[in-house]
Amino acid sequence: MEYESIIKQQMEDLDLSQLEEIMDDAAKQSNGIFSSISTDEIVQSLIDGKPLFDSEVILHNLLDVFLLEVKAGVILGVEIISICIVMGLLKNFSNSFGEKPVSTLGTVVCSCLVITLCLKNFMTTYDMCLDALNIMTRTMQILLPIMIPLLISMGGFSSGGVLNPVITGAITAFNTALQTFILPLLFLSSIFILINSLTEKDYVGRLAVFLRKAAIFFTGLAVTIFAGLTAIQGLVTKTADGLLVNTARYSVDNFVPIVGGFAADSIDMVLSCAAVIKNGIGVLGIIIILCLLTAPVLKLLAVAVIYKITAILTEPIGSKEISASLNEMGSAVITMAVVLGLCAMMFLIFLTIIISVGGGTLWK
Questions:
Q1: For residues 126 and 337, is the Cβ–Cβ distance under 8 A?
Q2: Which parts of 197-259 fold into alpha helices (H)?
Q3: Taking the alpha carbons of 214, 220, 222, 225 in that order, is the dihedral positive or negative?
Q4: In this predicted model, what pLDDT tens digit does every residue of 96-139 receive, in sequence order?
Q5: Is 186 exposed, middle or buried (0-12, 13-18, 19+ CB in 10 A)?
Q6: Burial class (CB in 10 A: 0-12, 13-18, 19+), 204
Q7: What is the pLDDT confidence band of residue 363, given thresholds at 50, 70 and 90?
Q8: pLDDT band at 284, cuts 50/70/90?
Q9: Where are the alpha helices (DSSP H) in 98-182?
Q10: DSSP conformation letters of 328-363
Q11: CA–CA distances in Å: residue 306 to residues 174, 198, 209, 303
């Protein structure tokens, strides 16, 4: 068909190699949850009205990956429980033989071993979150120079001119805030939680909880502000672009003799094809963000489950301070998953806004 040849020609003029490389890497990082897909396949699916993925297969893959991550985290739980058993034996021996200093020293050594294991695991998950955040940000920085010109070529002059600096600034500011303020707050909170497990008194436990809640609050506030401002700008510029394009179509249709109507319809078809391509690229960006988000979040949730279960099992055999710290560490890991999810949600909102704004600039 004619529109398919137009779409194919427009696709050949775009350089999507970097984006599709990220898609391949993201599909691999999703551990088989999502399969790699190209922009051509997405555009063709949009034209044919076919689904891109099988939801049942994805749900099955999600469960498999989560259980796999839980099995991988069981080793950490077994190590901590083993140390807590030794700690409990030392306490029982000290009560029987009256060797209080030896028991205290052994308890401190065991607590330090638990702290070392938890800190090593938390640093691994922390680095994983930073890597996922950086790849998401890079994906958005590659998508914007492709989608915004397409939006402008469809008549979205106001939308493209306003959304490009707004979204770029929001992505840069949010990424900087996460790496220099929010995620370090979570890391510092976890350090305080582990330090608190060395003593029977609660010195910095409340401070750790406060820092964790502050990280969630500032993340939610940043997402609300950036996404809200972008959505408002998109709604305002969408109306202006629609008025401008409809005026141009009316002028071509009525003031160009004989071929005016044909020219207007032809240009309308070209712009519609550009809209399909832009939406296909936007959908590819959404899939990439989901691929980059799913595996880290599942791993974080699996680690949190291990921490929570280990806290339950160690409470009767180890110290209550260790059990409480493990429970709080589980909450800290869940908080990290929430922060990463909010970050991905903001990027998805940005892509959705660009896709929806483009639909409003088509001629009618």
A1: no
A2: 205-255
A3: negative
A4: 555 556 556 667 777 788 888 888 888 888 888 888 888 888 88
A5: buried
A6: middle
A7: very low
A8: confident
A9: 100-153, 157-177
A10: HHHHHHHHHHHHHHHHHHHHHHHHHHHHHHHHTTS-
A11: 30, 21, 20, 5
Structure tokens at 190: 């976890």
| Statement: residue 257 has pLDDT above 60 | no
Band of pLDDT at residue 19, cut at 50, 70 and 90: confident
**Joined tokens for residue 180:** 């220099």
Predicted local distance difference test score (pLDDT) of residue 241: 54
Provide the residue type at 299 as one letter.
K
Cβ distance 164 to 357 under 8 Å?
Answer: no
Q: Which residues contact 273 (CB under 8 A, 6 or more apart)?
A: 3, 6, 7, 10
| Token output for 287 | 């899939």
* Whole-number pLDDT of residue 135: 85
Query: How far is CA 186 from its chain centroid?
Result: 17
Contacts of 300 (CB under 8 A, 6+ apart): 125, 129, 333, 334, 336, 337, 340
- Cα distances (Å, whole numbers) of residue 62 to 254, 291, 295: 56, 11, 9
Among the listed residues 143, 155, 149, the one whose alpha carbon sits nearest the alpha carbon of residue 272: 155
In the chain, the amino acid numbered 69 is E
Angle, vertex CA 285, rays to CA 232 and CA 160, nearest 5: 40
Distance, in Å, from the CA atom of 281 to the CA atom of 168, rounded to the nearest integer, reads: 17
Residue 96 in tokens: 């029987």
Spatial separation of the C-alpha atoms in residues 192 and 203, rounded to whole Å? 9
